[in-house]
Design goal:
Length: 484
């Protein structure tokens, strides 16, 4: 592509999962579409987050399961084969090559411009290509910002000199550090602590609050217990006040906390949240502030742009920072852009084809720790804060015959939130080995607004862990008689 200014119906900034899915949907709607990316097509998820992190964790969880199965314990007594784990990780990250993604874009007739894209006024994007060329792009209908997020590092003196790990260095590591300090208590923190402890690191976690603070409290408590049983030193109420790499910047890292505590580690991973990747995409040229989140309406338009051509989709809009939600938003936003381009009315009522209802009512999430955590919808506390009158139903998953079959000494817990007015499930959380596979059924129950009385007719197979649904209904019925 030369330095001219070709026009497209849609210009997409960012070729992560969100941008790719949006481009696919606008192209399917018959709109010419170009996507701009300055790194690898597939983005953070494919190369530095979801895919490589779960590849590191899969052997860890499989070994943990095998150790609880009679007849298998002796076969998995030894340490993990670290080179084999890393080789598997490399394969799942496509060896950090995006040729397959490029081939897919070609197959759906979406054009690609590699380089750093910036807005340059209304409906205009300028791309600086790797060879120094400037390519101008014009959007007839929409520019969609799908640039995602970056690691939010704290403002600590000398932090850059320490060369801290973020999720990128952790998931792409070539060696297992003897000692790893993990700062944070969210998903990245607990997953990487789980992985590197199993791979052989001595892991110390420095956590300001609790683990997995946005989920049901028992989830963080059970993961904390398991991490400590695995040998992770979990320290709560600690904020990092200073970091220094010893021996002239080539030795171990000394991490100091606000209470004077000190941890010495070979590497330090900061998993302290995400920030919008909007600092250098030309927002100032259209009257917006660089570096901030891009709030949107329910059609993913940025309201400050009165002409309605600018959309922000995925993590960058701060609605639900997960890959699958970004892809969900992209499917809806692509359909919205297509409908508006054709002058068609939007089906934007609750659960409509052009409505992102799941962003607020049914966001599913899995944390691939040992034990796993799976949730959808609000927690009990969130539901009550939203003004819902709810019943909270808990059950010990370890009592289920399928759980006993799955692993000796199975420890797990389920919680379902029932809206007493509508008599349907609005949220669910499961903690325990293998519970990730319970999540879709819970998500279907929430999005379909299935009455609890109808759930009695969804018969779980015996003996499976999914029988927990029957036990929850029985517990609910026996506790207050509201379930028939």
């Amino acid at each position: 592509m030369n330095g001219t200014s070709p026009a497209y119906d849609v210009v997409v900034l960012g070729a992560g999962p969100t941008g790719e899915n949006l481009a696919d949907r606008t192209r399917a709607a018959g709109l010419t579409t170009v996507i701009v990316e300055d790194e690898l097509l597939g983005g953070e998820c494919s190369f530095w987050a979801c895919e490589p992190s779960k590849a590191l964790l899969r052997p860890v969880l499989a070994r943990a399961d095998a150790r609880r199965v009679p007849g298998l314990r002796r076969a998995v007594e030894g340490p993990l084969d670290v080179p084999a784990v890393f080789e598997h990780r490399d394969a799942m990250a496509a060896h950090w090559q995006d040729a397959d993604q490029v081939e897919w874009l070609d197959s759906v007739s979406v054009d690609l411009v590699r380089g750093h894209g910036r807005l340059n006024g209304p409906r205009q994007v300028v791309v600086e290509t790797p060879d120094g060329e400037r390519v101008g792009l014009t959007a007839r209908h929409a520019v969609a910002v799908c640039t995602g997020t970056v690691t939010a590092l704290p403002d600590l003196p000398g932090l850059a000199d320490v060369r801290p790990w973020t999720n990128r260095q952790a998931t792409a590591a070539r060696q297992v550090p003897d000692r790893l300090a993990v700062v944070g208590g969210g998903v990245v923190a607990v997953e990487m602590a789980t992985a590197f402890r199993a791979l052989g690191s001595e892991v110390t976690m420095l956590v300001r609050g609790g683990l997995l603070g946005r989920m049901e409290p028992f989830a963080g408590e059970m993961v904390t217990d398991a991490l400590r049983e695995a040998g992770v030193d979990v320290r709560f109420g600690r904020s990092v006040s200073g970091v220094e790499r010893e021996d002239g910047g080539e030795g171990p890292v000394r991490v100091t906390t606000d209470d004077g505590d000190t941890v010495v580690a070979d590497e330090v991973l900061f998993a302290t949240g995400r920030a919008p990747h909007t600092g250098d995409i030309g927002l100032e040229t259209v009257g917006l502030t660089p570096g901030g989140w891009l709030p949107v309406d329910d059609s993913f338009r940025v309201p400050e742009i009165s002409e309605g051509w600018l959309y922000a989709v995925g993590d960058v809009n701060h609605r639900a920072l997960m890959t699958h939600q970004g892809k969900y938003q992209a499917r809806i936003a692509g359909a919205v852009i297509g409908a508006r381009a054709k002058g068609e009315p939007l089906d934007d009522g609750m659960w409509g084809r052009h409505a992102p209802t799941a962003d607020s009512a049914a966001v599913p999430q899995v944390v691939f720790t040992e034990p796993e955590v799976a949730s959808v919808g609000p927690t009990a506390r969130e539901a009550e804060r939203a003004g819902l009158e709810v019943d909270v139903v808990d059950y010990d998953i370890g009592k289920i015959a399928g759980a006993v079959q799955y692993a000796e000494g199975y420890r797990g817990r389920a919680r379902v939130i029932v809206d007493t007015a509508r008599r349907n499930v609005v949220g669910a959380t499961f903690v325990g080995p293998g519970v990730q596979e319970l999540l879709y059924s819970a998500t279907v129950a929430v999005t379909s607004e299935v009455p609890v009385d109808r759930l009695w007719h969804a018969v779980p197979a015996f003996p499976t862990i999914s029988e927990v649904w029957l036990r929850i209904l029985e517990t609910y019925r026996d506790s207050d008689g509201t379930a028939a």
